[in-house]
Design a protein that fits this description.
The protein folds into 3 domains: 3-303, Rossmann fold, CATH 3.40.50.970; 348-520, Thiamin diphosphate (ThDP)-binding fold, Pyr/PP domains (Rossmann fold); 537-658, Rossmann fold (3-Layer(aba) Sandwich). It is 42% helix and 14% strand. The protein has 25 helices and 20 strands.
């Protein structure tokens, strides 16, 4: 396209951004004004997408990592033909609109991921590029290039300062994710002022050291933008293009200043800016017919590309029926019938992390979309299933990822993989390190992503490593997060059920919270206990005495302690019900009648037992009940001694419980 036409498109984007922010009296005009030229070239000449079908599997992905500049992507989506009417841009940041303050996945068609927390979007994009590379290696055979697309990112200096981007971009360089292209808005301005207040590193040298291809251009020069993207597409490495831009471009009095970053330009300045850009100052949300014709034509090209892809898919299915069937299974994120069938574990002793590993050994090879990994804790997490091979430069078709010591990056990359599609990601680390992962876990929950965290070494039960590695407040903290499901199984067979629950869940992330230490795996039938399948309800009656007067509630390793306490209490003629509560959020979603059947209001003598903070248990035991937990940090010693010293014993639980019975 002629540069003069690109300029018209870019200035139209600028006008829409100005007006959206002015109408809301809130928002960030500076970045859209600065990056409009780059976006116009990318979306008009390079981006392969179909606005009529935003879910087309082989589309290019576009991530606005600098999500505060959301009027940029909303303007692009409207101009290029997505289902985002102009009225939605006029309702920017208003109740019920599809143009939220920051882009939200699932809320606005064409938005690939929720962005705004800086560093997350670029790290999600690494996951998207990783999924593309893995799926291409597995399924592209001969002339059938079924997976062949790029992931483009617009990122800010804030994205590149956040630590998570260092983790993810280092990973991308190591694994040569060459379909990843980052367009860095190098405008030298932050909220506080000039970026040199806090940021003076040589970004391109850093990325070169990561193994990236790095370029620097004038971000307002269309020929330079076009040439840089073309070079990036040809590289065998991920690419970063530092686009030197002017924040608030076109504003006579605020361009190049932090004043244009996060506030409306103001009525007078908006009019002056439009005039300077050649836009009618007296018209809001102005789009010239010729501009809309050009952008809609560019958008319609994607429909032709998708039709060609579907034609190729039909030939692929005829030529490679078995491989194409696996490909379709991945695209649909299917769990094939019978894939989760495996016998229950026999009675004995086994750590739930070991049981988890054995479950993976049995099922991983039966689920084409399942991709595992660990943050350099594979031997401890037991996440590398038999039959899996490691993803690497030599084996890009591998379905197990060595993330290195990059917990936060790992979680964000998993989000990107899930968003890309064709992959159901799981990965492992120690439970305490969810401290590093939390922002990405939160976004997975917010977006409703199907990701699974294998979180081992779940309590003081890890023993000698001491309080730095012993999660105390983590269960209570993460249970407070909406739409995150945590499952802490009591034994090997509950662990099997937990995996089935996690894989069946399609509307949010699941954390499997597992022990380092061995736990009893009781012969439930012989002992008159409920089957482990009941765990799928989140909480259930494990065993009980007739006319019970006391309820003991526990999760994970502490269920065994509760059972020991029941035996002691029975000797004192106190009838007891023991409830296993592996998943409080799942239990809370059960019908009221079921919850009442497990925790009847008529029995107020209740005691919860868990090797963690007691905060969340009051909703189950009430003000008259009791909690045996840990509202303090742990210590370094053999785990048996820690449990004894901190009162997590059957004897102490029985004593505390007996005092509740009146």
């Amino acid at each position: 396209m002629k540069n003069q036409n690109l300029k018209k498109i870019a200035n139209t984007i600028r006008g829409l951004a100005i007006d959206g922010v002015e109408a809301a009296n809130s928002g960030h005009p500076g970045m859209p004004l600065g990056m409009a030229d780059v976006a116009a070239v990318l979306w008009t000449e390079f981006l392969q997408h179909n606005p009529a079908n935003p879910e087309w599997a082989d589309r290019d992905r576009f991530v606005l990592s600098a999500g505060h500049g959301s009027m940029l992507i909303y303007s692009l989506l409207h101009l290029y033909g997505y289902d985002l009417p102009l009225d939605e841009l006029k309702n920017f940041r208003q109740w019920g609109s599809r143009t939220a303050g920051h882009p939200e996945y699932g809320h606005t068609p064409g938005v690939e991921t929720t962005t705004g927390p800086l560093g997350q979007g670029i790290s999600n994009a690494v996951g998207m590029a990783l999924a593309e590379k893995m799926l291409a290696a597995r399924f592209n055979k001969g002339p059938y290039k079924m997976v062949n697309h790029h992931t483009y990112v617009i990122a800010s200096d804030g994205d590149l300062q956040e630590g998570i981007s260092h983790e993810a971009c280092s990973f991308a360089g190591h694994n040569r994710l060459s379909k990843l292209i980052v367009l860095y808005d190098d405008n030298h301005i932050s909220i506080d002022g000039e970026t040199d207040l806090s940021f003076s590193e040589n970004v391109l040298k850093r990325f070169t050291a990561y193994g990236w291809n790095a370029q620097r251009i004038d971000g307002h020069n269309y020929d330079a933008i076009r040439a840089a993207i073309t070079l990036a597409q040809a590289s065998d490495k991920p690419s970063i293009i530092a686009c030197r831009t002017v924040i608030g471009f076109g504003s006579p009095n605020k361009a190049g200043s932090e004043e244009s970053h996060g506030a409306p330009l103001g009525k007078e300045e908006a009019a002056l800016t439009k005039k300077k850009l050649g836009l009618p100052a007296d018209k809001s949300f102005f789009i010239a017919d010729e501009v809309l014709k050009m952008t809609r034509k560019a958008g319609s090209e994607g429909a032709k590309a998708e039709r060609r892809w579907h034609d190729l898919l039909a030939k692929y299915q005829a030529a490679r029926p078995e491989l194409s069937a696996a490909f379709r299974s991945c695209l649909n994120n299917e769990i094939p019938a019978g894939a989760l069938d495996m016998p229950e574990f026999p009675a004995g002793k086994m750590a739930t992390r070991i049981a988890s590993g054995k479950v993976l050994d049995a099922i991983a090879g039966k689920i084409p979309a399942l991709v595992g990994g660990s943050a350099d804790l594979t031997p401890s997490n037991k996440t590398f299933a038999k039959g899996q091979t490691a993803f690497s430069l030599k084996n890009p078709a591998g379905q197990y990822i060595h993330y290195g010591v990059r917990e936060h990056g790992m979680a964000a990359i998993m989000n990107g993989m899930a968003l890309h599609g064709g992959v159901i990601p799981y990965s492992g680390t120690f439970f305490v390190f969810t401290d590093y992962m939390r922002p990405s876990i939160r976004l997975a929950a917010l977006m409703g992503l199907r990701v699974i965290y294998v979180l081992t070494h779940d309590s003081i039960g890890l023993g000698e490593d001491g309080p730095t590695h012993q999660p105390i407040e983590h269960l209570a903290s993460l249970r407070a997060m909406p739409n995150l499901s945590l499952i802490r199984p009591m034994d090997a067979n509950e662990t099997l059920v937990a995996w089935k629950m996690a894989l069946a869940r399609t509307d949010g992330p699941t954390g499997l919270v597992l022990t380092r230490q061995n736990l009893a795996n009781p012969d439930r039938a012989a002992l008159g206990m409920a089957p482990a399948a009941e765990a799928q309800k989140g909480g259930y009656v494990l065993t009980e005495d007739k006319d019970f007067k006391l309820i003991l509630i526990a999760s994970g390793s502490e269920v065994e302690i509760a059972l020991g306490a029941k035996a002691i209490l029975n000797q004192k003629k106190i009838a007891v019900r023991v409830v296993s509560m592996p998943g409080t959020d799942v239990f809370d979603r059960q019908p009221a009648a079921y919850r009442e059947s497990v925790l009847p209001k008529s029995c107020t003598a209740r005691l919860a037992v868990e090797a963690g903070a007691g905060l969340g248990w009051y909703k189950y035991v009430g003000l008259d009940g009791g909690i045996v937990g840990l509202d303090h940090f742990g210590a370094s010693a053999p785990y048996e001694q820690l449990y004894e010293k901190f009162g997590l014993t059957a004897e102490n639980v029985a004593e505390k419980a007996a005092a509740l019975v009146r």
